[in-house]
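Ticket #4471: structure export looks truncated?
Reporter: QA, pipeline team
Priority: medium

Steps to reproduce: submit the single chain below to the structure queue and open the exported record.
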Amino acid sequence: MKIIRVLNTNAVVTVDSKGREIIATGVGIGFKKKKGENLDESLLDKTYYLQNAEESHRLQEVVKEISEQYLEIAGRVVEAARMEGLQIRDTLYITLTDHINSALDRDRAGIHLKNMMKLEVKKFYPKEYQVGRDAIQWIYEKSGVDLGNDEAAFIAMHIVSAEFEVSQGCDVEKITEVITAILRIIKIHFKIEFQEDSVSYQRFLTHLKFFAVRVLDQKPYQDSMREIYKVMVEQNPGAYSGVVKVGQYIEKQLEHRLSIDEQLYLLIHIKRILDEQELTE
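Actual output as written to the record:
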């Protein structure tokens, strides 16, 4: 393996057996090395491959400036999130490596940020939050610094951003605000308390996460299920009244009119929630 670029003493860029450009890390792997020299594979610890060439080069620039140990933690977060079934984009390597470095810099300066979204993140994104908690432990093992639950929530928000491919105008806070508002509308309109450990509620919550992203990014479903929609509305006028309430909120606050497909999926989930309520009464 030939060295393409030396990033720092412990990180270089090389090419793997498939001809892909990768970042290789290991203690002393880049020490006094130059472009074109052979890589000492006995020093090789970990490798990182990003499918997008632009993102790969962005990550290389980040690693040049900060410790590759933070990239290792970011890599563990990506792996853990994917093990939880979350669809994580490679951009998380970049954003999280940089964030961990900044968080530790702030800690050394005595600056500790409060995460005002912590409770919502913990409630609406439990898998992401748990991975964030794991990351705090991994950071502690490497640095001896316990960044705490506020930072766990910040890390979870980075995971959510990588999961939903949010744009600059659609951040995690806005997504969470929309989810919170819709749940409040349904709760008040139907005078119910959600059974938050139920399958129906968890499915509804998952739907709302993606729904909120589409609404905020102005990417609605196409109207492809008009006939099914008509039948469902006729058969479930009570549940549909909740869809109307949500639609009014979305149109007034976010200037987005719900498509028939979006209304149909909301109707299906609301009906499940209401059916579940009847069974427990």
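Status: closed, not a bug. The export was complete when the record was re-opened. Leaving a note from the reviewer for reference: The radius of gyration is 23 Å.
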